[in-house]
Amino acid sequence: MYLAELQELVSVEEQLAEALLRMAAAASHPALKDALVDHHAETVAQKGRLVAILRKHGADPAAHVDQAMQALIGETRKMLGMVKGDDLRDAALIASAQKLEHYEIAAYGSAAALAGQLDLRDEQKMLHDSLLEEKEADAILTDIAKGEVNPDALAA
Fold it and tell me: pTM value?
């Protein structure tokens, strides 16, 4: 089960990396655009960690395509098509990005817990590091929403 969780996470990170670049291109607030681009770089590094762990265990990193992430990204696309105006679109981008982040937080929490139960301490630490990065990305999005984007969206 542990390796299957990691294979799922590779797919999640791969899909998210592509989506973050599209989301950054659609963002108008500079802080939001920067946060999405910065998290893209983090996402690529997180995928690299996962691939390294899977290869260590002789598992295929491309064995799974996460359909839940596909659906969440599809909902993001749909939302962006429904919302008009830069300020409202940025608020929708943050809401969608946080849904994606929360999905990753749950997945990394589970994977890190499994690694701990299997006494794979180095892997547990790597997964926990990714979990902390996801939580920080979520906090940054919250700060941008509260400080800049949501007040502008309310005024729109």
Answer: 0.94
